[in-house]
Amino acid sequence: MNAPTILVFDSGLGGLTVHAHVARARPDARIVYVADDEVFPYGRLTNGELIERVTAVFSRLLPLIEPDLIVIACNTASTIALAALRERFATSFVGTVPAVKPAAAATRSRRISVLGTPGTVRQEYTAELIRNFASDCRVTLVGAPRLAALAEAHMRGEAVSDDDLAAEIAPCFVEDEGGRTDVVALACTHYPLVLSRLEALAPWPVTWIDPAPAIARRVVQLLGEAPAGVPARTDGTALFTAGRALTPALATVLAERGLSPAVVEPVPSRLTPAVPSFK
Ligand code: DGL
User: Fold this and answer.
1) Tell me, what's the pLDDT at 270?
2) Cβ neighbours of residue 129 under 8 Å, at least 6 residues apart?
3) How far is the CA of 97 from the centre of ligand 1 (A)?
């Protein structure tokens, strides 16, 4: 297949961390980045609301985009809705799920933390990954209520305090008589957006695991390698479902990532009330 179209999907800007690796792995691909900012953050939805919402968004957008492959660059949507999406739509999907297996492979202290949205960490899917791949580890599940929204604000160019970020990651750092946490799996694609700040705020150094490179490898497994020597495309599109204007800082971030123009394709929701501000 030549020059495939890849749809990279998230509730907001977190999927940009996956987009960067996918775009590097298949520089010839036409990429459409979809941010379902109408109902962000997904972490506060019930499973039923989330499945209903993502199904509605894909029903609306797939005929417009006609992707060859869809990357769900969102742990919350993948752990809750991936099975339903695969059942409903014929397009191939690649999901993003908590990197428990690489975390268990990397830890020396056998103490790992899984940092995700409250939605992701309460899923049976996550519990099963831990049973299957980390049964010999002490695993601390941390559902960070505000960290995805703080990462979004950071990307929009707003001030986000160190204290707010530190409070979100504090429960990941566990110390007992036998040792302390040495690996944190970043189980929300928003968190690598602020990784350098999280590293600086950590009470002690740990290995942070970002699943994005593994997702890009899976994309190449499914679509094949890009033809040798193709130049990177810069005509990607970012599509936002809420209809809000982008800040100049965000427009710049998107353009730097080859996602310009940014367009708005409103997909209104009756499912959820207005998002409470994180401030
Ligand atoms: N980026 C998302 C994830 O990987 C979700 C953030 C949210 O909408 O709560 O889980």
Assistant:
1) 58
2) 97, 98, 100, 101
3) 11
